[in-house]
TrEMBL record:
Keyword Hydrolase: no
Residue ranges annotated for the DUF1468 domain, each copy included: 19-154
Highest taxon in the source lineage: Bacteria
Keywords carried by this UniProt record: Membrane, Transmembrane, Transmembrane helix
UniProt key word Disulfide bond: no
Entry protein name: Tripartite tricarboxylate transporter TctB family protein
InterPro entries: DUF1468
Transmembrane segments: 12-38, 50-71, 92-118, 130-150
Any one Pfam family match given in the protein's UniProt record, by short name: TctB
Organism: Chelatococcus albus
Length: 166
């Protein structure tokens, strides 16, 4: 087994955690429904009738998944995520998280230009002049499209304020 093929997260672990999380969600739904009447009276179902049953179905399905995980996948060591797969997911996810962070502090347009530039350089392998032209061009196009043509103002940051674009 290569170092990059090592199991980071097993299928059994993921199925157990997922079953427990959805079981808790079902229990919360049932608990919330119990605050109201969950029965049936002469006018029909009471307010908690359907939510309680939906929570019950979620909880029962979660218990089924939990049982199936123990019967089918316990001790198999079957990988859900290997190191290489996790690296690929992180290569996509981390720039997106950085983009969202930059939107909050720099505004949408600056964040878009930075995101496109960084991804084109880091993942696409493009040279920086081409990445700069494309990222600035796409960002400029979206600015014109949303701000001028559609008249839909998007999130602005300090760079736009500095340029007087509000």
């Amino acid at each position: 087994m290569k170092a990059d093929d090592r199991v980071v997260l097993s299928r059994f672990t993921l199925e157990v955690v997922t079953a427990l999380v959805t079981l808790a969600a079902g229990a919360v739904v049932m608990g919330g429904a119990v605050e109201y009447a969950i029965g049936w009276d002469e006018t029909g179902p009471q307010p908690g009738y359907f939510p309680f049953r939906v929570g019950l179905v979620i909880a029962l399905a979660s218990l089924g998944v939990l049982a199936q995980a123990f019967v089918t996948h316990r001790g198999t060591g079957e990988a859900f995520v290997s190191r290489e797969r996790l690296r690929r997911v992180a290569a996509f996810l981390l720039p997106v998280v950085g983009f969202v962070f930059c939107v909050v502090f720099l505004g949408l347009y600056v964040a878009t230009a930075l995101y496109l530039f960084a991804v084109m350089l880091g993942q696409g392998g493009y040279r920086w002049p081409f990445a700069a032209v494309v990222s600035l061009g796409v960002t400029g196009f979206f600015f014109v499209l949303f701000e001028w043509w559609f008249k839909v103002p998007l999130v602005k940051g300090p760079a736009e304020a500095l340029l007087g674009i509000h």
